[in-house]
Every structure is written in structure tokens, then in C-alpha cells.
Amino acid sequence: MAMGDVDELNSAVGMLLAIGLNGDEDLQTPTLLRAVQQDLLDLGGELSIPGYTLLKADRVAALDDWLRLANARLPRLEEFILPGGSLAAAQAHVVRTVCRRAERAVVALAEHESVNASVLQYLNRLSDLMFVLARLLNRVAGGVDEQWDRTR
């Protein structure tokens, strides 16, 4: 199950790249996402060969570095936001939710088999990255975060 979820995650990232990420040249997000696809292949390789390590801790650090730069461009969240907005932002939210499912599957796998800690950290950071990316993409498209309406 975990390997299939990671494969689906990689395909969802590919769809996001195919949709296009305009206005984000200085964060080099397309380059980062192509590296993420390579990382996800490494991650899947690890899951298929227990005890074999391919995904290095520096790949988690690369996600953390991007998150620091990207979060600095965004206003602080005051409320939950609704997934959606531009097509690219909506796809980033889809990637985020697929990533969370893959993370849950890997956590379940880790209860029975040894899993490299970097794998779990990577998936956790990647879902954070996709949330932040969705917010950025909506701003690039001229929109803002649509907040949850608690009064409904």
C-alpha cells in the first residue's frame, strides 16, 4: 500500500508540473519539484528493499530551506483555508492530501518493518511544502486564501 501511495504521489507532483508554475522564478519551484520526483523514486526504492537507504537527510533539509524562503513571503494564517483557487494551487492541495495518505501508509508500515526516519520526515515536510506552495500559487494568480467560514 505504501509503495502505491508514493507512486501516486509522484504522479500527482508530475501533474502539478504539467499544469505549470508561473511567477515563481526566484524560488525555483519547478526545479525543486523535479528533484522531489527523483526523491520519491528513491523513497519508493527504500520501501521495496527493507534496510536499504537511498533517501538522505539532506533532502529533508532542502525542503526545509524552501519552506523558510516561501513562508517569509506569506501572511500569517488566521484561520483554516479552503483547498482550491487557481488550477495549479488546487493541484498542490491534491498533492498535499495524497502525500498525507502516503505518510500514513508509511507510518503503518513502520509499525512492522524498519523504515528510515528520513522517509517519514520527508513526507511530512513535503505535505507542508505543498500547502505553502498552494498559498503562493494563489497569490501569483492574483487571488488570496479563501478562509473557512465558521458561521455556516
Topology overview:
Elements: H1 2-19, H2 29-48, H3 57-71, H4 87-110, H5 117-140
Helix pairs in contact: 1-2, 1-4, 3-5, 4-5
- Helices and strands, in order, run as HHHHH
Shape: globular
Q: Report the C-alpha radius of gyration, rounded.
A: 16 Å
Multimerization status: single chain
Sequence stretches where pLDDT stays below 50 over 5 or more residues? none
Judged by helices, strands and strand pairing, the structural class is: mainly alpha
Biggest β-sheet description? none
How would you summarize this macromolecular structure in one to three sentences?
The protein is mostly helical and 152 residues long. 66% of the residues lie in helices and 0% in strands.
Structural notes for this entry:
The chain has 152 residues and is mainly α. Helix content is 66%, strand content 0%. The chain is built from five helices and no strands. α1 (2-19) packs antiparallel against α2 and α4 (87-110) runs antiparallel to α5 (117-140).
